[in-house]
Design a protein that fits this description.
The structure holds two protein chains of two kinds. Chain A has 31 helices and 23 strands. By secondary structure, chain A is α+β, with helices and mostly antiparallel strands. Chain A is elongated, with a radius of gyration of 39 Å. Chain B contains four helices and three strands. The radius of gyration of chain B is 15 Å and the shape is globular. Classes of the chains: A alpha+beta, B alpha+beta. At the A-B interface, α2 and α4 of A face α2, α3 and β3 of B.
Amino acid sequence: MPWYQRWRNVFRPEKLNAELDQEFQYHLAETTDRLVAEGLPREEAVTEARLRLGNYSIQKESTRDMNIAVWLDSTRADIAYGLRQLKLNPGFTTIAVLSLALGIGANAAIFQLVNAIRLKTLPVQNPQELVLIDFEDGSVRHGSGWGPHGIASYPQWDQIRAHQQAFSDVMAWHQELFNLAMGGEPHYARGMYVSGSFFRGLGVSAILGRTLTERDDNDACSAGAVISYAFWQRQFLGDAGAIGRKLTLNGYPFPVIGVTPPSFFGMEVGNQYDVAIPICADRLLAKDGKGRMPLNTGFWLAIIGRLKPEWTVARATAHLRAISPEIMRATLPTRYRTEEAKGYLANKLKATEAGSGVSGLRTEYERPLWLLLATTGLVLLISCANLANLLLARAAVREPEIAMRLAIGALRWRLVRQLLAESVLLAAAGAVLGAGLALIISRSLVLLMSTPNNQVFVDLAPDWRMLAFTAGVATLTCLLFGLLPAVRAAYLSPASAMRAPASAMRAPASAMRAGTRVTSGRERFSFRRGLVATQIAISLVLLFGAFLFVRTLNNLVTEDPGFKAEGIFAVEIDFGKSAVDYAARDASAIETQRSYDKRRGVYHEISDRLSAIPGVASVAQVDITPVSGNGWDNLVGVDGAAAVNGKDCNFDALSPGYFKTMGTTVLAGREFNDRDTLSAPKVAIVNETFARTFFGGANPVGHTFRVSAEAGKAEPVYQIVGLVRNSKYHDLREDFQPIAFLPKTQDETPGPGATFVVRVAVPPGPVMNAAKNAIREMDPAIQIEFHALSLQLQNSLLREKLMATLSGGFGFLAAVLALLGLYGVISYTVAQRRNEIGVRVALGATRANVVGLVMREAAVLLGVGLAAGIGLSLWAGTAAATLLFGLKPHDLASLTAAAALLASIALLASYIPARRAAGADPMPALRSD
Amino acid sequence: MPKSRNDKLQGTLTLLVLRTLESRGALHGYGLCEHISQVSGELLEMEEGSLYPALHRMEQDGWVSSKWEVTDKGRNAKVYAITAQGKRQLADEQQSWDRLTSGVKRVLRYS
């Protein structure tokens, strides 16, 4: 009989049984007939026939075994048995499956994120051959930087391209936002400038049209745009006729020449690109017609290379180091002075692996994610400990039954298999449910990590790694909580189990309820207590972590940023292509003195119009708003010292009334006013840290400082006229930095964009509308964007908020689980010691005595758990050190708080069964023995 | 003459059943039992029921095939017939049996 038939027969027992019965019955009938023919009476004939046949059941079973796959059949029986057991205990089953699903789901979700952000490789050809070219630490590149990954100037890129030997292809790119709108509120697309070799080098081909090639990225620059699949669907609705249609980027038209496949999202994990145009297009979009390409001091390009066959990363680094000197020589910026030039010439290039792309998201979230994975792992561990405890308790109850089965010949491993079936079913159910939960949880996490300005795109499609992880976790949990009880149950010696008091056999029900098995119960029970103590220890670690992160978030949120963020919003203006600005330019659209003057007039008018809106308390103009991600720094020397030998200082430019608008106190001197004009002496206002850094804390008002200038130009001298309170510059976490504020009115070259901060005393909505209208009246082509400053601050704290929320949630969950475990164990103790307690009460113990007795037991467990937990917490705290703010990783306050919280609820949880025991009538306990 | 015990018979059951089916054609289990006990002159007797596991085993190995038939008495009976593979197996087993018995005979004859 072929194997599939044997498998099928496992699942059609009735049919098989019927057939076998028929065969045997026929045999019996014929034998009976013959015996009757020989003269035996009917009934005797029947009996004799059966005798001759032998043992009907055994023969039938042996025959049946020939027709089925025996192993499959016994597995099926085990599973059916396990299912039945689970159905009989719906409460236990639900709790077990839910806690498993949550534990496994949370782990799988976080792993999915880690996978997507850290482990997955780029969807390009042979990503393991890709290598990121970067400068070694300590390189000198003074000038302007753009974008999070830009490292090289265009001349440097040219040189690398010409001289490198290690790579079969080198590709350059730069990320930027392009405005698709032609005026009014901007509508941004996430863009990339790419070199001609980009798509070919990565091995990405177009699914429609073609990708950019070297011929597109040259001096002639007949630029076209390659769009992503997602953008094609969104913007052109997947229309095949999109090829050739025009896209306006920053006001300049580009024809669409191709669409990339859906799997290609760009170079940055967590970001989905929309449009790619050749690098030469930077010239077309630049306001001065030249752009960044000719700049020796503009570091905006990121560079990636594909290793030639047989080349390694180390060899490539060595090669890059070797060619670095000539590259630096050829691109040395003329404006560098001697010190800077020396440093620049010593710059060295290196190569690092880039198979999984670059990612700001990764840098920001990698550590928290691994920590979260560890956290969820610990929560799962606690869950498993709970389940193990429960299963051990149930196995103890079934001891007589198992002992009986062992005594009549069951194989131990067979019993283990049967007991394990239940755990396997639980783990399987938990895993399936958990996998579904994981998808929901991971999507929610991504939503949590996104802000409207900075959406996170992560490929969360489940892949084999995630499924393997989920299956692995499920198997591990099943082994952790299922195997041990099963093995312990099946490997006890039947004699000791059956030696249980005779009453157990006489009145099994009550004996099982009381669990009065002293001998085998004892050693198993200390294992269970050990489990609970471990749970308490782990919960303490998680609670401690939760406290740390919540307090970090609190510290950051309550950190005084140096200004009042509530009630301020920023208005960003760009009149790049508006008639207002163009009218002032000369024939070749180059900026002139007239255009600068015109701009100043425009700023003034905007400022006036904004101030006139009802509800506006004050308005000021500023170049860089706090915590915006932008920065401007330069070298400063005080009181006649040359700036080149001075220290670094941050800068900002603002109009009069800024500090009033921002709510930053002026400590000495004055704010800027209308008398600080272009013809007046240059003035500046500095903050406290500046005073401390450069003047040792003395009042800086009246002193002067110089700022580093380009080679050949004199260093400008500023007089300090005011001292203000410290305020945050780059982000909330940093210490206060020295800042020098310059007046916008003394800005010789105002740009075509400006930012105004507006303080409102009323809800900002109608004010923003009024502002939009007011500016549009001047020229509808002016682009306007609004930001609430408090939102800007909040968004910078996203990661901390995530950690606080999640660690808080998991800490809470862990504590609840540990307490359930403690409750279970204490209840069990009480049940076990029922006789003892009954005797004590009968002899005169009061309620309080009994409660104290039980609580002592709980206190011991708690004590051991807390001691171990404290040790673990201090050790584990170091892992989170870099993520904390205002706290040390061994923060005693948090540790004490967590321990106190855990201890108080633990004692409460054990008080309940203690009270129950104290209140119970001692007679039934005494009588049952 | 002492009746042959079950255990030794089980080993040769395959041989006996295959030979019976070859010479008698298709038979049901009862018929096989009858034939073996009759032809052996009641020298061989076995627990009748133990024939069936063996028969099903042989069917699984592909040496016999089975089908259900209605007898003259109107009862349903499962009838077994030897297959080509079974015939080959029979030849093999017969050879082994001959070798075994000759060898045993020779050793017993040695005095």
